[in-house]
Description:
The structure holds 2 protein chains of 2 kinds.
Chain A: H1 6-23, H2 28-33, H3 35-57, H4 62-68, H5 71-100, H6 104-111, H7 117-138, H8 143-166, H9 170-173, H10 175-198, E1 206-216, E2 219-226, E3 238-243, E4 253-256, E5 266-271, E6 288-295, H11 300-304, E7 309-314, H12 319-329, E8 337-343, H13 352-359, E9 365-371, H14 372-375, H15 380-389, E10 394-398, H16 401-413, E11 421-424
Parallel strand pairs in A: 7-8, 7-10, 8-9, 10-11
Antiparallel strand pairs in A: 1-2, 1-6, 2-5, 3-4, 3-6
Helix pairs in contact in A: 1-3, 3-5, 3-8, 3-10, 5-6, 7-8, 8-10
Chain B: H1 2-32, H2 54-57, H3 60-63, E1 78-79, E2 82-87, E3 90-93, H4 105-109, H5 117-121, H6 132-138
Antiparallel strand pairs in B: 1-2, 2-3
Amino acid sequence: MNKPDGKTILFFFSGVTLFLWLLSKSSFSIITDDPLRSTSQVFSLLGLLLMMISLILSTRKRFIEDVFGGLDRVYEIHHVVGSLSFILLINHPLLLVVKAIPSPVGMAQYLLPGDFLPYNLGIFALYFMILAFIFMIFIRLPYHIWKRTHQFLGIAGILGGIHALLITSDISVYMPLRIWMVFWIGSGIISFIYIFLYYNALGAIYAYEIIRIERFLDIINIYAKPVNRKISFMPGQFAYVGFNNPSIGREQHPYSFSSGPDDEELRFSIKMVGDYTVRLPLLKEGDKMYIKGPYGKFGDMYIDGKKPLVWIVGGIGITPFLSMLHYQSQLVDERAILLYYCFSTKEEGVFIDEIQKLVQEKKSIQVFPWCSQEKGRLSVDGIIDILGKYDDYDVQICGPGLMMESLKDQFEAIGLDDKRIRFEAFEMI
Amino acid sequence: MIKTSLKQLGALSIFNFVFFLGLLFFFTNIYRQPSKIAPPVKKIQPTSEVVQSSSSSTSSFASSSSVRNLFNEISSHNTRQDCWLVINGHIYDITAYFGAHPGGDARMLVYCGKDATSAYQTKDGRGQDHSASAYTLLQQFLIQ
Lengths: 429, 144
């Protein structure tokens, strides 16, 4: 029997919550007599459940990665679940406000802080969420400030959870629902405390020393050697990386390994695109690098699978494939791989020489550099043609966020079998 | 695609929130105008009147011959689905307030069909009266 995937599990938890809520009612007419209040209750329970799940997902625990098939997918679900919980929770009091119209006191009870602490906690949670949402979505902030703002949502979740447990509601009167929600709220709070206070303190952090830095246009290659222990990773994985250079700051960012797991030197290849990465050239030899990980399951299709592969790469999305090519170049095994490496201008194909060198003795690997300035953009139709031509191949795709989103939507629209295709999203928290 | 839709729904929710804050401001101003103020409910001393004997001891509301005397009917409205109670000589239908009472539904349910004046003025024996805003909120449930 197939293991249930993460989405099925989420639907199951939501279903259990709804079922318990229904059981908490003494008669069905209580629900239908007051549809606004009933809907508001459902919104609050589901919103709270999803908020807590969203917090749990952000702990980056291995078992969560296993359930969802990689940390990049975990964060995708985290975004969707978090946004959905926000929408449900903000509309929960608004439905009650509609019910209270035109009484200003009744309306204010759900919108403004008053005398009653449990209500106030819910209202503060609401304001925290709205502020965080506005800052995150509508205002472009530097990453470290954005991340702090994001953590506000965790505080909002905790306040909302305490509010739900303190007020008189279905949670307080129906014990099975109470136990269920206490479990989720407790897990959410523990997850938040773990991320906020203990994530860096617990678990292995690998110290490396930078031995060389190379720069090609807006790409920077950072080479390092372990100070003590070497990190063990699979090709295609990534890690959270921080530096001890004061000009850079201590925050951690996720980067794919671009060296092979058995290479003597560890390498990260990073494109300078954000306020943080443009400071990376300030790094110098001898600086320390701290690595937490590894994470990700992008390489599983390559490592565990037997089928030939089509790799479609956009720009800096080449890094996990470089790691796989380094690994493959050391194997005797011949595996058919077609690599479509897309870049805008000829100069931006900075890894072409390295790739040619890695595959020169591998007859089964074919590389197709695709310079869009010369050949035009590799269209979805072009990719579908490739997939049609090699219908026994599995497909791995990694590229800029917009390219991936567009490909996913269009593949979905034409009903392409998504079991054959593995995307790697590298825009994460 | 789903991310864009969620972002739009989130923005719409914030818009709704701001809209209702505006609406609250609007209604607050309307109710501030003296001519539109809802009938005041005076805080008076707890009464020992028992609802069951209300036909002889209720307020002037009930004694008016042109008004149907609801005080005789109170004791039959004693469930969560149909809850009337008396506070300070006035009848309130608080059925719609179930689920919203900060102190819980159970505390209200006990007084359905009865005189809850003393309980209301002492928060069910805790010795603390309800706030002014709670008295104002009560007005929307006044039926006699």
